[in-house]
Amino acid sequence: MHDAIVHPSGARMRWVELPGAEPARVYVHGLGATSAPYYAQVAAHPLLPRNRSLLIDLLGFGISDRPTDFSYTLEAHADALSTALRAAGVEGASLIAHSMGGAVATTLAARAADLVAGLILVDANLDPYPPSPVRPGTSGIAAYEEEEFVAEGWKDVRDRVGPHWWSTMRLADPRGLHRTAVSLAGNTTPTTRELLLGLPIPRAYLHPDGDAPAGAEELRRAGVQVLSIPESGHNIMLDNPEAFAQTLRSLLP
């Protein structure tokens, strides 16, 4: 396990690292997730050339620290990730980022161009959307006030998201989970979509077959490869790791 201090409190981000050639690949998880369980099978897949791979957990999630005085906005997550990658000696990396992690990775690419040479978003959040108390995940979490969520609301979310998602979501700091969900629902300014459209690096957006992202043609016109992965849902890397690895091989340098 590797780590780096990324916050004035001394809080550390941690990651599992697979050795290999440069440039590195950085795998970023989604809301309530953690990178190693979601990406280990693909990062070590025999179809992919052996490059250095960092399966990193954002602050408040998984094996990383949970500072109480961290804002947990998408921008703050991106800046903390930047600090961790610089401490790890990473530059010109390919970022593979799922769901909420895609919004963080896109923000990072816009703020620290030297760190990111390519971006592969996996069914990522691109736009703001309203909280909804009847939905699981981000919308459901963001519908609570912070103190309400920390006290009791997390129990309703646990029951809605189901045992698979909860297996990693339960590792997240409740305040960090809530603040991240609120920021994700509000998105960034400019939005993740606008940042993605303006990036000058190779970009791809992977989505489940039959569920293309809104504005797919606009993404394509801006040079973003929009690619469907068969027999998969939102968790593409878990649902069809073979097709996911094959697609990564076609996209990674």
Automatic annotation (TrEMBL):
Domain AB hydrolase-1: 26-134
Listed transmembrane segments: none
Designated name of the protein: Pimeloyl-ACP methyl ester carboxylesterase
Key words, A-Z: Hydrolase
GO MF annotation list: hydrolase activity
One cellular component (GO) term of this entry: membrane
